[in-house]
Every structure is written in structure tokens, then in C-alpha cells.
Design goal:
2 domains, 105 residues, 4 helices, alpha+beta, single chain
């Protein structure tokens, strides 16, 4: 994630009455959480994380690095206009494939 140079400046943040701080003014809206690490010198290192929600049926993709790589490559190719039209019969063949549940029986 690239941080805008304007956001790289140091800023003093005060602790509120509940002992909390707000980082909202420092990071892009896309940041949803942080990885925090306490350094030996007492410094707290925060690394912003942008989490993506996905449907449970898509979880397999994120657990399969090879498939995820192929999807990413396909999306990059499509962005560059490197696309190929798929014949309608391809989708008929895909629809005819057995479901995972069918294979287990």
C-alpha cells in the first residue's frame, strides 16, 4: 500500500480520557486494522492493513496460492486489454461438470 507523501509527516496525537488514540487523520480510509509490534526500545510499530471481505464460497481461492496467482494474472491481463473471447460452449461444459458434493458421494 502506497502512502501519500503528505501523510508521511510526524504528528502528535493525544490520548483521550479513555486512554485511546485516533489514527484516522493519518491513514487512508481503506485501512481497516493494524498489525502492532512493541519494539525493544518501547516504540510501537503499527503496520496498516486493508482487509477484504469475501463470500465464504470464495474462501478456497485464498487458501490456494496457485489458483489465486492465476486469478491475479488474469485480472492484470484483462486490465491491459489482453482478453480472449470464450466460445459459449465452454460455459455449457463448465455447467455440466459435477459439483464437489456430487464427487464425494
Amino acid at each position: 500500500m502506497a502512502i501519500n507523501p503528505k501523510q508521511q509527516k510526524e504528528k502528535r496525537i493525544k490520548v483521550d480520557s479513555r486512554g485511546k488514540i485516533s489514527l484516522k487523520s493519518l491513514v487512508p480510509e481503506e485501512v481497516t486494522s493494524y498489525k502492532a509490534k512493541l519494539q525493544d526500545d518501547g516504540t510501537i510499530l503499527l503496520r496498516p492493513i486493508m482487509e477484504v471481505e469475501y463470500h465464504p464460497e470464495e474462501a478456497w481461492l485464498f487458501k490456494n496460492p496457485k489458483a489465486l496467482k492465476m486469478v491475479k494474472e488474469g485480472l492484470e491481463a484483462a486490465e491491459k486489454g489482453e482478453v480472449t473471447r470464450i466460445d459459449e460452449s465452454f460455459w455449457n461444459e463448465v455447467d455440466a461438470l459435477p459439483d464437489e458434493e456430487d464427487e464425494e458421494e
